[in-house]
Specification:
The chain has 279 residues and is of the alpha/beta class. Helices cover 37% and strands 17% of the residues. It has an eight-stranded mixed β-sheet, with helices on both faces.
Amino acid sequence: MDFFTSYDGTKLAYHVFGDGPPVVCLPGGPMQASAYLGDLGGLSAHRQLIMLDLRGTGQSAEPQDTATYRCDRLVDDVEALRGHLALDRMDLLAHSAGTNLALLYANRFPERVGKLALIAPSVAAVGITVSEDVRRETARLREDEPWFAVAYAALENIMAGQGTGDAFQAIAPFWYGRWDETAQAHRAAEDEQRNNAAAAVFGSGGAFDAEATRAALTRCTSPVQVLAGEVDLNSPPPAVIELAELFPRAELVVQARAGHFPWLDDADRFVATTSAFLQ
């Protein structure tokens, strides 16, 4: 683990896995420690992974100004890390909510971005709406699973505005391509890894200007990989396809039978696809 000091004096941590040309990795959550990414299923065998703990998460310090947890404010931390690493340009890999941060960084500092890999991306920053019907259709792909009936009923309650803690726990299997021991342990660790107070600020008012971001992405010259999990309830393929269509140079991948964490569901396939793009 290494540290650097960001623009406002906040001490931030990052973790390095593997050797070779670096790829800066931005975690989701939002505001979850980078530990949940592991080494992305073995991607570190192909590239050096620089895993950033966003401010207030993991081993990074909490800032004096909690407004700096907002996604657009976090862009300055990513730029401070680039400067610390002495990289003229850097490849970025981002997962889930972290893709919003990657998009805002690419919009503000397009000349600093090499390749951009967006894994199971959130579409909040560009204002794409995931309809309830799309979520239902995606969920029903799992109807032969033994946990489906309970999870689907909980999903309907959540979409009806009756979500409880138990309901959100019940739908956890939908985030994974296989609800096995590995997935269950991964999910159990999540609550301790997330800074809930910071997560509440991440997407708060002013964080996103969807119209401006969409316009900027149409001018993006960086090669982009947009990877969706076929059964990902959080980032279903129809929404991810719409995101990919905003870029002039996007490569869309839908990983079969994968959920929101495709490196857990099929590490070999995920690593082969992503390492080939980043090569």
